[in-house]
Amino acid sequence: MIEFLIYLLTIIGIWGLLSLSLNVQFGLAGLINLGHIVFFMVGGYASAILVMFHGWPMPLAWIAAMAISALVGVIMTIPTATLRQDYWAISSLAFAEIIRFVLKNTPIQGDYIGASFGIPDIPQPLGDMLSTHGFYLFFLVLTLVLLALTYAVVEWITRSPYGRVLKAIREDDHVALALGKNVRSVRMRAMAIGGAIGGLAGAMFAHYNAFIQPNYFLPLETFLIWAMLLLGGKGNHLGAIVGTVVIELLYNSTRFLKDFIDIDQGVLSSARMVVIGILIILVVLYMPNGLVPEKRRRYARE
Amino acid sequence: MPESEFLNVTSVRKTFGGITALDDVSLTVEPGRVHGLIGPNGSGKTTLFNVITGFLRPDRGQVRFRGQTLTGLRPEKVAQRGVVRTFQSSLNPQQMTVMENMLLGPQGQVGEGLVNTVLRYRRMREQERANEKRAWEILSLVKLDHQADTYVGELSGGQKKLLSLGQMLMADPQLILLDEPVAGVNPKLIEDILTVIDRLRSDGYNFLLVEHNMRVVRRICDHVHVLDAGTVLADGPPHETLQRQEVLEAYLATQAGATDEEESS
Amino acid sequence: MDQVLINTLIRGGELSLLAIGVTMVYGTLRFPNFAHVEFATAGAYITLFFSAVFGLDLVLAGVIAIVLVALIGVASDVLVFRHLRLAHPVMPMIASFGLGIAIRETVRGSAGTSPFFLSQTLAERWHVFGATITDTQVLILLLALLAVIGFHLLLTRTQLGIAMRAVSDNADLSLASGIFSERIIRLVWLIGAAMAALGGILIGLETQLQPNMGIGLIIAMFAAALLGGIGNPYGAVLGAFVVAFAENVLLATNWAWLGTLVGMDVDYLMIPTGYKEAISFVVLILVLLVRPRGILGDPAR
């Protein structure tokens, strides 16, 4: 039971990073990124490959993963200036799928590493030195620390003048342009920041789970992060975390139910997905601002 | 047409598909005066604004401002040169408060560069404090000081226009382009807006505005340019220009209902 | 080459049935419906259900399935999307994702993950101009053709159809909601879902049924719709055939000549069959980068 809780909290931590990342890109910058999982995927693969096949030390590999994901984010912005919001959304979905497709068809080493086999046996940080239980505890602490740091960073960004310009271009570019803001650069930076955070989450997951494969990064995963963000409250970092907790609890609930209800695992798993699908529809219809609405910054002295 | 050192629009031409929105349009704007750009619906006024401020590129012609060429510059660069503008329908972000909108205005904010929020933290704080102070002053001028924490989406049409005006001022502009500053505003607020513009003119701000409301034009503009079907029809002080035959005909031809109402009241 | 032609026709026909519905909803309501492919999945599985469980004739089961899915399509609008007409553009997109998941997982939970086959009899093969075609494939081609022609007649000869065309081409008209345009929108959903269901049945006949059959079609379907021009059903058909042609031709071509240009010494250089999916991705991205309004699309878009 304890192991499960530790696992659950770690997963909430890692996915919390993903929600924060999407919140920067959508909640703050207004970009409908339907291919968000690409950062998670690229970060994971980059770090695993650097550590396992190029001998990089893990911390450096994680930083490199963040940098590469940030670059991916910037690349995605390049057609933004010309594309309409919904077209960009579709292109982001296609972009993520193309990268996944390439990874799925590219062997990395030998016959059984890379391509659709994924990367197995990814080293875990301090894995040799700690017991299994010790490792999971250590990783949980690491995750929570990194999550707290990231949270602080995104809050800082949100409250800065940069964050103000981000919010201004959320709905429409015109006013910001008319006031002399370089909207394109602002947007690119938001994508880079979001990308870096997503890449960190990916690297963390790869070295936690010790295994990644292309099917972990389907469009469905992006959708789940969107569910977390919309349920929790977009534009609002606390909301992002709250949403992550709720969805992860729901998603992992079947592990409990298995012990109480005697239904086939497959059916149970499908049922929980149906519930999540319907839940999202309900959130969109009845709670579009989420559980935790964006707080307004008050300036009035009186 | 005498060359102006201030704003100079020369022979601008803009077509969209088969339609010629602007055809050989030239005008000059002198500092210290409120210029009005008027004409029937569809005459190309907003298009001209878009060309001047870089939101559209003309097919031919030039826009020069204080010795620098504006044509071909991206809109944010035009704004950085001191030419700011409002939009016909208030495009201010609905989900931000009045004060946040005001703080968006000033240029050269160190805190807008990401890394600088840390490296130049103190400067950023200084600027924020100074901008906030200035914002309160301007908000009281445009009578929105009690609405500082209100979301833009909750303001009335007239209040949104006042906010846009206030925002422009925060940007410390050289030339302010107002696109229909009183359209859809209730009459009481119109007077407030005009008072503000008057006051600003005497403070040394320069305006070019697009307006349909003839009473407003007569009241506030020192000089009008009449645009019709993409060409400049007439140019001069409002009282005499608005009497001219060709101007009256242009308006009658397109049956601008608003004009008739104003004329008869 | 003739086998390529036949494969293109079949794939193009199937994609057309899907692309027409999605492009019309997209043109009318301004959002990509990610659940559209699941109408196809549902159509196939409901047909399987009625035919395998109730022993109904395949044709009858298919008709029932199409009707039911058409109703599901209308229900989606009435229950979900109608309330999102004025919402932020991302809302109907995410809601459609949710709907897609709900439909797909209901299918998966009920029928399981193992594949099923709709047509049990060994199909008779015909030989046409040196290519092989089974009678199932002939049936697919005929049905797809009939559906598209029928739709064309609807669009051009009936009042409702003409209204549909007007509303689909002009999102602003349809969003300025009135009882009339609401009714037309519902019709768009009805027919779009019905055609998707037929498409799903045909795909199921041609290959097999499995719960993820819809997902594999999303990119190709949107590539076709965007290539043809969003909101234009004829564009959707055109786009579908171009995509199908690209997929089949590019895979069948010997690219050795390109190889020698870059210094490779080979007799055969073929694109691996695993890369078939990649072709529709590339089409989609190219359309969005080069000409987002598509071939027959409205320049305003």
List the helices and strands and how they pair.
The complex is a heterotrimer of chains A (302), B (265) and C (301).
Chain A (H helix, E strand, L loop, with lengths): L1 H27 L8 H18 L3 H20 L7 H21 L1 E3 L3 E2 L17 H28 L1 H11 L2 H5 L4 H27 L9 H14 L4 H24 L4 H22 L16
Helix pairs in contact in A: 1-5, 1-8, 1-9, 1-10, 2-3, 2-4, 2-8, 3-8, 6-8, 9-10, 10-11
Chain B lengths: L6 E10 L2 E11 L4 E5 L6 H8 L7 E6 L2 E2 L5 H6 L2 E3 L12 H7 L11 H4 L1 H21 L15 H14 L4 E5 L7 H16 L4 E4 L3 H7 L2 E6 L2 E6 L1 H4 L3 H10 L2 H8 L1
Chain C lengths: L1 H28 L6 H17 L5 H22 L10 H22 L13 E4 L2 E4 H23 L1 H11 L1 H5 L3 H28 L8 H14 L4 H20 L3 H6 L14 H15 L11
Antiparallel strand pairs in C: 1-2
Characterization of the model:
Chain A is mainly α and 302 residues long. Chain A has one domain (2-218). Helices cover 72% and strands 2% of the residues of chain A. Chain A contains eleven helices and two strands. Chain A has a two-stranded antiparallel ribbon with strand order 1-2. In chain A, a hairpin with a 3-residue loop joins strand 1 (107-109) and strand 2. Chain A is globular and about 55 Å long. Chain B is an alpha/beta fold and 265 residues long. Chain B contains eleven helices and ten strands. In chain B, strand 7, helix 7 and strand 8 (207-210) form a beta-alpha-beta unit. Chain B is globular and about 60 Å long. Mean pLDDT of chain B is 86; it is low at 256-265. Chain C is mainly α and 301 residues long. Chain C has one domain (2-215). In chain C, 70% of the residues lie in helices and 3% in strands. Chain C contains twelve helices and two strands, in the order ααααββαααααααα. Chain C has helices at 2-29, 36-52, 58-79, 90-111, 135-157, 159-169, 171-175, 179-206, 215-228, 233-252, 256-261, 276-290; strands at residues 125-128, 131-134. Chain C has a two-stranded antiparallel sheet with strand order 1-2. In chain C, a hairpin with a 2-residue loop joins strand 1 (125-128) and strand 2. The longest helix of chain C is centred in the first third of the chain and has 28 residues, at 2-29. Chain C is globular and about 65 Å long. The interface between A and C is large, with 40 and 44 residues.
